[in-house]
Amino acid sequence: MSGENSGFNNSNMCDNIVMMEYIKVEIVDMSDPEQCSVKDEDTDGQRVLVKVKEESEELTEVEWKHQHQEPHFVSGENKGNLNDHIRTHSGEKPFTCHECAKSFTCKKQLRDHMRVHTGEKSFVCRYCDKSFSHNGHLKDHIRCHTGERPYRCDQCGKSFTQRGHLTDHVRIHTAEKPFKCLQCGKSFIQKGHLKSHLRVHTGEKPFTCQQCGKSFTNQGNLMSHTKLHSGEKLHHCSQCGKSFSGAALLKKHLLYHFGERPFSCEQCKQTFFFASQLKRHLKVHANERPYTCSFCDKSFVWFHNLKDHYKTHTGMKDHVCFECGKAFSRANYLEQHQNTHTGISPYKCSYCDKSFKVSGSLKAHERIHTGENLFHCLTCGKSFTHSGHMKDHERVHTGEKPYKCPQCDKCFATSSNLQMHRKQHCPKLLQ
């Protein structure tokens, strides 16, 4: 076995020590005749001679990467273990899965991988009886029970149960998005996000409801949808529509609506749960706006408002629906949009039994009950319960007709008028 074939290098590559019971492994400089003439004293004459590269020789890519890894130890009872170890340097993967053609450096890795195809899950959690195909996956899972989070972010201190989760998290700080869609150029922090996004292009919806046959591009939306059938009740706040997984969490949240607010603003009498909330509120009266936009000099009381405002300049919409590809500037906008896919209508009217998928629709609907008209036409003074209705009305004064028929180029002031018109071109729409 030559050093060139193995890719194994002592001075520049790794500090691994391979301990053998029957084979004495020595690192020998082939250029030194004295070392080459050394006799075996405590073995059966078997020796592995590994060529040491000269300092002037260039490292291979595999060697360079390994040079920068932490040293570790490999032990074994036969020559096969050494061969398996050397393949980590050479990149050789001779063991191939006949099911999916994926390749591995050693037989054990292939055996572990085959459980993906056979469905075998021999590693069982002692806390909850959940089973896994790999021991490493079980170890990661057990941390959910023990609370252990050994992987810590150096920048913000957040901790994780798995190394991969930390790797994904760090990209939030570095803004690195290494997973790029080849069809539209969009990039993602996590490989799983890219896989979900690709289904927008392919139309694939692999997650199917067993009860009604409706399909989804990601498992999260399917799980939300199945609650409609199972009768499992998410606990919704009747005041704001926010959902909670347990009654206790909802009860705690309701304090924000009905609980005691001991901290009161002397200027406007608004009350708060916490002193910190009052302190932030006082900035409104003091006209203290420490967070200024670098694009337009607009200032804000709170930093999160500035962050949201920045997106009006950059056009950034980093919250993407993996079901249809639509993007949003805020996470809560995306959450409400996803209700259109899952069929969940968590926002219930406090006056009647009607419910809505989006909180804005609920607010507009409740104004029908209260008679409140917040939106007033500046031209004629007419009032409306919904801003969209007012915008449609204002076109009566401006003459603007932004909705154009693709068949005959006729234009309309509202989208509903356009839809009515299009039925003339397509009789099927009238049925």
UniProtKB/TrEMBL annotation:
Q: Which organism is it from?
A: Phoxinus phoxinus
PROSITE patterns from the xrefs? ZINC_FINGER_C2H2_1 (PS00028), ZINC_FINGER_C2H2_2 (PS50157)
Keyword terms of this UniProt record: DNA-binding, Metal-binding, Nucleus, Repeat, Transcription, Transcription regulation, Zinc, Zinc-finger
Q: Which GO terms describe its molecular function?
A: DNA-binding transcription factor activity, RNA polymerase II-specific; identical protein binding; RNA polymerase II cis-regulatory region sequence-specific DNA binding; zinc ion binding
Pinpoint the C2H2-type domain residues: 95-122, 123-150, 151-178, 179-206, 207-234, 235-262, 263-290, 291-318, 319-346, 347-374, 375-402, 403-425
* One GO CC term, this protein: nucleus
Q: Which family does it belong to?
A: Belongs to the krueppel C2H2-type zinc-finger protein family.
Q: Where in the cell is it found?
A: Nucleus
Q: Where's it mainly located? A: nucleus
* Gene3D superfamilies (alphabetical): Classic Zinc Finger
Q: Tell me if Cell division is a UniProt keyword of this record.
A: no
Protein name per UniProt:
C2H2-type domain-containing protein
Q: Which domain of life is it from?
A: Eukaryota
Pfam family membership, one: zf-C2H2
